[in-house]
Each structure stands twice: as structure tokens, then as C-alpha cells.
Amino acid sequence: MPTEFSHLLSSFDPETGEIAGAKPQYRRLSDLRGCFADGAAYDAALAQGDPLVYSVCACEAATGPGDLCYGIGRIMAGRVGREYYMTKGHLHTWRDAAELYFGISGEGMMLLEDHRTGDSRAIALLPNHAVYVPGHNAHRTVNTGSRPLVYIGVYPATAGHDYAAIKERNFRSVVVEQGGRPALRSREDYLRDPAGPGPGALR
Ligand code: S6P
Ligand code: ZN
What pTM value is reported for the model? Predict the structure, then answer.
């Protein structure tokens, strides 16, 4: 079996989320300042330690126009306040660039937000399912389960990652635990009433 990835063949470990020959990036809680809605809950969690929230490993061997890349994400189970552990989230620099996500293991959601309209959607990300992320949608992956969520994202090599827009204004919606289930709520609404009106509306 090959140990280095190339344009044509690469191997990955669906448990660890690592791609042979590629360097994983690790995102700890301290790297996600400003992402979680509840700032006090974030500070309290960070005072207890700086756990790993997720890792991502990318195969970006092909770089030309028309080429494709993929990344494997592995998000740990956990929450800050009621908000589940999640990725930073980004828009593609090339706004038209779409992406396909494939669930490998665990249970999660893709939070999509159209930057032109502000409309938010949460789509289940489950094993043996694919989620299409249309262009112009900020996307954030959320682990709503009790074990690591592992998934693959396939994107155009020229998509680029724009984190600045998210850092500036964050997503308008949050995926939070409500009555033991995930719910999509507006950030404002969640901050006003963290427990929410009742069982979550998603699934
Ligand atoms: C890349 C793709 C994923 C993410 C990964 C981590 O286009 O969407 O591989 O990079 O889910 O998320 P983030 O927001 O930290 O890049
Ligand atoms: Zn992306």
C-alpha cells in the first residue's frame, strides 16, 4: 500500500481521520474564540482546560483549475453551554464553489448560511449520506452525537477558504442541545433563553 498521497491515489484512516503523508491540523478550544455564542460558557470551559475540538487533514495534491481536493474532519463530542462542538466554518474565497460532504461515522449536522440572504439551514450529516453545500453558503460542521464525527469534504482545488467573514460576524444561527436533541435556533434567541421552549425541532 502507498504511504504518500499523490494526485491519483491516497489512503486515509476512517478512525483517526488521517491521510497518509498529509499533516493534520488540530483545533483546540482556544483556537475557536468568538465561534461559540455564549462567551461566558466559553471562558468557563477554557478555564477548565484546552481540549481538542477537531482535527482536519487535507489532500491538496492537485492544484489546477478543474482539480479536486478533499479533507477529512474529525470533531470530538462535547459542548460549550448548549452549543455542540463544531468547526470554525468558512466561505469559499471563490464564492461559486460548492462542496460535497460524506458522513463516515458519528452523527452531526451541516450548518449552512447563505451570505447573500442570511438564510440558515441545518442538514443531517450521517454515515452513508452525502450533503451538498451550494456555493455562497458559509458552512460549519457540528457534532451532535456522543462519539467523534468523521466526514469527508470534496471541494474544487481553487475554492480557497475565507475565514475572515465568519470571524467578523459569525453565523446567525446555532445548533444547540434542547430537550436532549439538536435544535437550530437564532443566536440572539439562544442567548436570550438558552434552555429554549421545548424539545429540538431537528431530525
Ligand atoms: C474544506 C472543507 C473541510 C473543512 C473542515 C474544517 O473546504 O469544508 O475540509 O476545512 O471541515 O473546517 P474549517 O471551517 O475549520 O475549515
Ligand atoms: Zn469548504
Answer: 0.94
